[in-house]
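re: ur question from earlier - yeah i can do the single chain one, its not a big deal. heres the input i used so u can compare w yours
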Amino acid sequence: MYSPKDYWTNLAEGFEATDASGFAPILHPQAPLWFNQAIDNLQLRAVRRALSIAAISPGARFLDVGCGTGRWVRRYRELGFSPVGVDATIGMLRIARALQTNAPLIVGLANSLPFSDATFDCLSDITVVQHIPYELQPKALQEMVRVLKPGGRIILFELINGQDQHIFPRKPQGWICEVESCGTTLIDWFGEEFFFLDRLFVRLAQTVFGRRGNRADQVQSASHLSTSEEYSLARRVYWKLRRLTVPLSACGEPAVEKICPASLATHAVFVFRKRI
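and the output i got, formated as tokens:
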């Protein structure tokens, strides 16, 4: 049975000693570093845009829920906020501390945050609730709103298109309805990570290799290949080709965002205000 805490604990333990960037446990574990760096750059651009929409004052108390290896906590401090990170996985927080995350890091579950009511000015949830089963998502969102001050902002960055055994996406209106039902009002939202060329290539690769899943899945299943050498060769070719499709897709993102409906992206970024 799927358990979010067990899932992230296993990832933290598996990559703690092998990934100096801290990206593998929180992005795409089986992907090359260059790929995770490309995704991180894309997400950073989106978070900066969300912060501009949220109009958060310097020095604001900022909670990052599901902070993982601490990449957003470190960046929020660099941007002049007063950040706190909370994560259910001790292994993730250990990596975050090793990566010089000089901010409070606290063990806690998203659906039972260890903070008093109205503690923070802003809160971010970067691809966290999408990994929580549907029946538990409302409680996690209620907790996030609870610890936020009236008028405070929530930045929610979640999957809207995709499928896998450990992700539980919603369509944009679904995320909006869930968060607004907790006592917030949507300020604005936008699509993130269209990556049409790369998504097309991955879909083709999945068809060839017989693997199903979302765009971020890597070619890990090769039961029909006769030898491990063939699988290894196929995987190298796969990533060499993505070394072309990923940069091309990233370069085209600004133009695609302007002409395509936001609902066609893989993720969406929402900015909410807690009602007074």
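Helices lie at 4-15, 33-54, 71-78, 90-98, 137-146, 172-180, 196-209, 228-259. not sure if urs matches, ping me
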